[in-house]
Design a protein that fits this description.
The complex is a heterodimer of chains A (about 325) and B (about 450). Chain A has a single domain, classed as Ammonium transporter fold, CATH 1.10.3430. Chain A is about 55% helix and about 0% strand. Chain A has helices at about 20-40, 45-65, 75-85, 95-110, 125-135, 135-140, 165-170, 180-185, 195-210, 215-230, 245-250, 250-260, 270-290, 295-315, 325-330. In chain A, α1 packs parallel to α3 (about 75-85) and α2 packs antiparallel against α3 (about 75-85). The longest helix of chain A has 24 residues, at about 45-65. Chain A starts with 18 loop residues before the first helix and ends with a helix. Helix content of chain B is about 30%, strand content about 20%. The radius of gyration of chain B is 21 Å and the shape is globular. Classes of the chains: A mainly alpha (about 325), B alpha/beta (about 450). Chains A and B meet through α1 of A and β15, β16, α11, α14 and α15 of B.
């Protein structure tokens, strides 16, 4: 044998799972919500999403070029961030704001901290919070489903309240609340990708089936929101809240399945994930019931992102066999 | 039925189909047989023959170099050609005895069985095992006589034969269970006799249905004692000693503990076979079953190889390669050792020989850790491989010790499960070596 053999440490085989495959799964899982967004809000939803995704990918590529790093566009994570950010803005948002949001998500939140795997906050949610703080009016200009929204000059459209705002009674007018069916199908006002619980559930089930995510976070998150709003969010005292309405309306479904399950910014320990889900739920309820803001999902996840390293540290798995000395107990 | 298993682990494709149906075929020795003095965990053996001596097949050629060590026997008759440094499968130059085979196969006249072993004391049986040079033939190669000699305070109530064979590709234990089940159960009965037990266990993964059936059929005929065949969930590393004990007994071998401390003794299928042959026929470890596989070999199969046969001879006799291998692994793909070349001999721990081509030989490029936690779920020892990996890369020994690096069994489940293709276990192994070196320096 003339050729030298390759010598390396074991293991010599690796699983089929890759970062790219994982991100592709998330993209596939987001497609039902994308379709629902376009059906509910019209072609402009598609324009916003494509603009956002393209901006994210271009910013990622540019950053790699400028910093002379190997390009990481191929891992598809920028596409996921782009889709999630687009799903978290209203369909009426001016496109230049979408581009700025993408810049904030990719460059400031993700790349400034070291790129994929190193950001401590969810880039899409941080960018949404940034946009909301910067252009509060544009970020809360909601339209009723199937309103014709012009591509440019969206400021003049007839606005409507989101289901959560209507429930909380903010934004002045008393409105007819949408039916559960409308909420479930997504036939209501809100951000592009958050309205259809059905579409998000389809994507969520796909992710669960592909073992990309575990049920722990979505389940504890949604259960906590349901319990908390049932107890506290009623208009007629304790235990009169409409929990189902609260879960179907607003962004908790999207948040629970797609953002609170983000690998990088949430705990990896099983116990930690349960704490994270409950924590997100508690903060969401606090904001929705007592805060001045009808939503609360994105802030709850961002706040829990910050304590994630701490949660991981205190919930590290117990050392194998250290807890019980069965043999001694038996003797 | 809920199958018994352990917490964590991974599910690699078992790749056993190409060789599972291949009966064991006996191979010839090579003209030159090489016996490295380290084929076991512990002190190297000491040669007791001189250059020019004539040796018989089965004759002891090296004495154990201490209590934790094992003696070595020639598998052929012939002349000692040299005692010199030769390359060991691990890539190091190791003192070795080289014997030229005279192709006469003159068997050492001293070899004879003990007759009725139930008349012997445990000490006497263990001495027979020690003299036969038996080590853990699953691949760990820990001297068996040491394992069978726990301190007097040990209260052994479980003797387990490890038939899990959880490494992908390998089917040598599977074939042994199909072809010589009586010998394996015979070995188990001897170990049970040593500890005065009436019950014994054989753990087999449920992807080896035929082996389970065969062993149950043979076990049911055993009189006086009862042998339990326990089907286990097919999951890697089901055959890890701690994992197997946990699956079968529910007990956990804790940090720094040895199996006897939870009352268990585990022997591999082939070790059990060796114990049986040593006690009943006086045969030392001269052969072992080797599975050959991988995408480069022409005739993957199970072969009975004499210890000391050079691997190039093994491949010559079995049809060689269909394409040039770029990486050859001794053992399984999860924990096996990549070989420096094929001029090294088959040793006691050679359970498999896997030859892979260029594409499979090189690992994937590493990406940044996503913190997905897959390695944390996969780790059967409940460690944090992601954190160990991080600390190992910057030589943070304090952090490594705090993260219980010593608990790592190096099964590789972390690296296997990682979507970013990070090499956690590889980093851990390197860090363990560095830690050991640092501790030695400070002494």
């Amino acid at each position: 044998m003339d050729n030298l053999l390759v010598v390396s440490h074991s293991p010599h085989i690796s699983g089929k799972n890759t970062v790219r495959r994982t991100m592709l799964d998330v993209i596939i899982a987001l497609i039902p919500a994308f379709i629902a967004g376009v059906l509910v809000f019209g072609y402009r939803a598609a324009v916003v999403t494509v603009t956002c995704v393209l901006s994210c990918v271009i910013f990622e590529w540019l950053w790699n070029k400028i910093m002379k790093k190997p390009t990481t566009v191929g891992d598809l994570s920028a596409i996921v961030t782009g889709m999630l950010l687009a799903f978290n803005v209203p369909v009426t948002l001016p496109l230049w704001m979408v581009v700025i949001g993408a810049f904030f998500a990719i460059v400031i939140v993700k790349q400034f901290f070291g790129g994929i795997g190193h950001n401590f906050m969810n880039p899409a949610l941080a960018a949404r919070a940034f946009l909301l703080a910067s252009w509060a009016l544009a970020m809360t200009t909601w339209v009723a489903p199937h309103t014709a929204v012009p591509l440019w000059n969206t400021a003049d459209v007839v606005t409507s309240a989101t289901p959560l705002a209507a429930y909380a009674g903010t934004e002045g007018t008393v409105q007819q609340l949408p039916s559960y069916l409308d909420l479930f199908l997504g036939n209501v006002g809100g951000c592009i990708g958050e309205t259809s619980a059905l579409a998000i559930l389809i994507g969520g089930i796909y992710l669960l089936a592909r073992k990309v995510i575990k049920l722990r976070v979505p389940l504890t998150y949604l259960a906590t929101v349901a319990l908390g709003t049932w107890i506290f969010a009623g208009h007629d005292g304790l235990f009169t809240g409409d929990a189902l309405y609260q879960i179907l309306a607003g962004g908790v479904m999207l948040g629970a399945f797609f953002m609170a399950t983000d690998y990088t910014t949430t705990p990896y320990t099983p116990v930690g994930q349960i704490i994270f889900g409950i924590g997100c739920g508690v903060i969401t309820v606090l904001i929705r019931v007592w805060g001045g803001y009808p939503e609360g999902c994105s802030y709850s996840i961002l706040l829990m992102n910050i304590v994630t390293p701490l949660i991981d540290r205190v919930t590290a798995p117990k050392r194998y066999g250290a807890s019980k000395r069965r043999k001694e107990a038996k003797a | 039925m809920m199958l018994k298993t352990f917490h964590g682990g991974v599910h690699p494709n078992d790749m056993k189909a190409p060789t599972a149906g291949k009966p064991i075929v006996e191979l010839d020795p090579s003209k030159e047989m090489v016996y490295p003095m380290t084929q076991h965990i512990g002190a190297p053996a000491t040669p007791i023959v001189n250059v020019g001596d004539y040796v018989f097949a089965g004759q002891k050629i090296a004495e154990a170099g201490g209590f934790v060590s094992a003696c070595i026997h020639s598998a052929v008759s012939g002349t000692v050609k040299a005692i010199e440094k030769r390359m060991h499968p691990n890539g190091l130059m190791v003192n070795s005895i080289v014997i030229e085979d005279d192709e006469q196969d003159k068997v050492c006249p001293d070899l004879k069985g003990c007759g009725d072993y139930t008349k012997l004391t445990p000490k006497e049986i263990i001495d027979v095992i020690k003299e036969a040079g038996i080590v853990g033939l699953g691949g760990a190669t820990f001297p068996t006589h040491v394992k069978l000699s726990p301190p007097p305070e040990a209260n052994i109530d479980y003797v387990i034969i490890n038939g899990a064979e959880c490494e992908p590709y390998l089917t040598s234990d599977y074939r042994s269970m199909l072809e010589i089940p009586e010998q394996i159960i015979g070995g188990l009965k001897i170990v049970m006799h040593i500890f005065g037990l009436k019950e014994g266990y054989i753990g087999i993964e449920d992807n080896k249905e035929l082996a389970i059936e065969t062993m149950i059929a043979v076990a049911s005929k055993v009189k006086d004692v009862s042998i339990h065949v326990v089907p286990l969930k097919t999951k890697y590393p089901q055959g890890g000693e701690k994992q197997l004990i946990n699956a079968i007994t529910g007990r956990k071998v804790g940090p720094g503990q040895l199996p006897w401390q939870v009352g268990a003794i585990v022997c591999n299928v082939d070790t059990s076979r060796a114990i049986y042959q040593a006690v009943t026929r006086g045969l030392p470890v001269m052969t072992r079953i080797v599975t050959t596989g991988g995408d480069c070999v022409k005739n993957p199969g199970n072969y009975k190889v004499r210890i000391g046969t050079t691997l190039s001879s093994v491949y010559e006799q079995t049809g060689g390669f269909v394409k040039e291998p770029a990486k050859v692994i001794m053992g399984g793909p999860m924990m096996g050792m990549a070989l420096p070349n094929l001029d090294v001999p088959a040793i006691k721990g050679t359970s498999g020989l896997l030859a892979f081509g260029e594409e499979a030989a090189h690992g994937f490029e590493e990406n940044a850790c996503l913190r997905c936690g897959k390695c944390v779920y996969a780790c059967p020892m409940r460690l944090l491989p992601n954190k160990l990996d991080e600390a190992a890369r910057i030589d943070d020994f304090k952090a490594l010790e705090k993260l219980n690096i010593v608990d790592c069994i190096e099964c590789g489940s972390c690296a296997y499960s990682c979507p970013s293709k990070r090499r956690q276990v590889q980093q851990i192994k390197v860090a363990k070596d560095k830690l050991r070196a640092a501790q030695q320096r400070s002494k």
